[in-house]
Amino acid sequence: MTATPMTTTDAGAAASAQAGTRRSGNPFAMLRRALVYVLLSIAAFVSVFPFFWMIVGTTNTSADIIRGKASFGSAFFDNAATFFTQVDALRVFWNSAVIAIVGTVLTLAISSLAGYSFEMFRSKVRERIFALLLLLLSIPFAALMVPLFVMFAQAKLVNTYVAVILPTVASIFIIFYFRQATKAFPSELRDAAKIDGLKEWQIFLYVYLPVMRSTYAAATIIIFMANWNNYLWPLIVLQTAENKTITLIVSALTSAYTPDYGMILFGTVLATLPTLIIFFLLQRRFVEGMLGAVK
Amino acid sequence: MSSVKLRGVRKAYGAHEVIKGVDLDVPSKQFVVFVGPSGCGKSTLLRMIAGLEHITAGDLEIGGERMNDVDPSKRGIAMVFQTYALYPHMTVRENMGFALRFAGVAKDQIARQVGDAARVLALEPLLDRYPKQLSGGQRQRVAIGRAIVRNPQVFLFDEPLSNLDAELRVHMRIEIARLHKELQTTIIYVTHDQVEAMTLADTIVVLRDGIIEQVGSPLDLYDDPANQFVAGFIGSPKMNFLAGTIVEKAANGVTVELTNHKGTRLTLPVSGGAMGEAVALGVRAEHFGEPGAGDSDISLRVDVAEHLGSTSYVYANAGGEALVIEREESRHEIGVDQISVSIAAAQAYLFDSAGKRIR
């Protein structure tokens, strides 16, 4: 018996025939595929349309927006001028930036240290404490607001950046995230570093931190977005206009008797920009971090 | 270079004891290999010497100084890990000089020491690469280089070749042997591969369940095992064991009748054992001779034969007792269902039911 070797062309033809069969397969599979595409398209539209509407809105007048005009207009500079007249933008962005950046750095430092310690150090009570922490996640923030406010009022910290930042720095979710990520950190690296003469804090700083940079990048995006978009707690503790953040100000603009939607959407676009920039800068690392990559 | 002494060393995790009192002297400049099956405690013992595991009881001395509570970096040791443990965010040069940087060594001195180690290991062209740009063998050489740079009194190797493919393993084995000859340092090397142990070691330490079964040179352990475990562990293929019973004791030795070969008797030149005692007769694969050439012949059913070129291994059995026979002379005749081989009493070993050697 002889066998003719399959040529590249044969193989290609076979593959495309197979693909063709797959494509023109049974009608139910095609229908299911079509349904999936329709659903995905709807989901994509629902996700993208608000952004599109927001950007288009910045170029239209309030009347056009109310009418539902979905095309670009010529009121962009008018909306911008109105926004910058009504809002002390520099101050507001400064407040948001300080709270988001300081909050992110402190949360990363404290929560990653906690996550690292939970995973690296053996203790009889470790798992119980960790389980207790996870249990605390189930307490809604609404139940904590009043006692927190009383606590900060007694400490005379109401209407300060500290009052906004402090409750977020030991984030249980981020501790959990870092602990899970640390499971992929090779313990031999820690052993090698010990033999190389590093103290525990040096191992954390010079070995763990650079090796886990993808995890840090992913956490940075999550924390920065949470801090930048934080609304409820700053609304409670920041009481004077000069301390308000961009989210509070944009929200306040909507409560006017006749809101200027063009101007409000301009403010919203401005408020969205920093998180978008951070996300695009760290996008690749974010994906790696979410996949738990240790390279 | 320094010696290492272990005196009554124990390690326990809670109530579970994994190292059960180890006494060992590793003389200066010796290549000592810890060998044993998985879970025998060989890596734990090495990590205790390195200072990565706390010593529950006993004393550890390196270079005559008690080291139980001394920081790993101050014990004068360097360790090479199975997974290389290279810092992925640093170049080869930075990896090799990292310990010196933290020891406060001047930059030009670090560059000199890294350069010297790189020259010894032929790593010079790779110095500016990252670990992910290196092959497994190159990574392991960098890990060894990182250890050399520290100029340690004792090198510790924890299964350094386990992650390499067979060909590279042989190559690296020769590299490590050459390095030991060149550097003349004390090396403690952990492996579960007894071929590595036999080829590299000046002294082999066989461990089982947290205790030392036997210490000796590779050929001492091979030729004169203290018990059935060591006899079975050292040597490839492993020693064959045939069940038997002592049927006669005389001045010239002990006669054993093999359980699965009725009527086959063999008189070994030993004096221990008791009449009627169940024993195991140990015969190495290469010690089975042509029929009639030894003291007794046995007949076996052939399962399979492996031809390696210069040698062939016949996997055979009798009454469920699996045996491996090495054939060099008559390897072309293998393939029949039955095979007859002879056993020479002088080349056989006898073990009691507890696995202890009967001498």
From TrEMBL, chain A:
GO biological process: transmembrane transport
Main location: membrane
Subcellular location: Cell membrane
Species of the source: Devosia limi DSM 17137
UniProt keyword annotation of ATP-binding present: no
Transmembrane spans: 34-56, 92-118, 130-152, 158-178, 203-226, 261-282
Position of the signal peptide: none
UniProt family annotation: Belongs to the binding-protein-dependent transport system permease family.
Gene Ontology annotations for the cellular component aspect, listed alphabetically: plasma membrane
Keyword Protein transport annotated: no
Protein name in UniProt: Lactose/L-arabinose transport system permease protein
InterPro entries: MetI-like (IPR000515), MetI-like_sf (IPR035906)
Origin superkingdom: Bacteria
Membrane topology: Multi-pass membrane protein
Domain (ABC transmembrane type-1): residue spans on this chain: 93-282
Keywords from the named record: Cell membrane, Membrane, Transmembrane, Transmembrane helix, Transport
TrEMBL record, chain B:
Matching SMART domains: AAA
SUPFAM superfamilies listed in its UniProt record: MOP-like (SSF50331), P-loop containing nucleoside triphosphate hydrolases (SSF52540)
Highest taxon above the source species: Bacteria
Pfam families xref list: ABC_tran, OB_MalK
Predominant location: membrane
GO molecular function: ABC-type maltose transporter activity; ATP binding; ATP hydrolysis activity
Membrane topology, as annotated: Peripheral membrane protein
Keyword Cell inner membrane listed: yes
InterPro entries associated with the record: AAA+_ATPase, ABC_transporter-like_ATP-bd, ABC_transporter-like_CS, ABC_transpr_MalK-like, ABC_transpr_MalK/UgpC-like, Mo/tungstate-bd_C_term_dom, NA-bd_OB-fold, OB_MalK-like
Location(s), subcellular: Cell inner membrane
Bilayer-spanning residue ranges: none
GO cellular component: ATP-binding cassette (ABC) transporter complex, substrate-binding subunit-containing; maltose transport complex
Alphabetical UniProt keywords: ATP-binding, Cell inner membrane, Cell membrane, Membrane, Nucleotide-binding, Transport
Protein name per UniProt: Lactose/L-arabinose transport system ATP-binding protein
Organism in which the protein naturally occurs: Devosia limi DSM 17137
Higher taxonomy: Bacteria, Pseudomonadati, Pseudomonadota, Alphaproteobacteria, Hyphomicrobiales
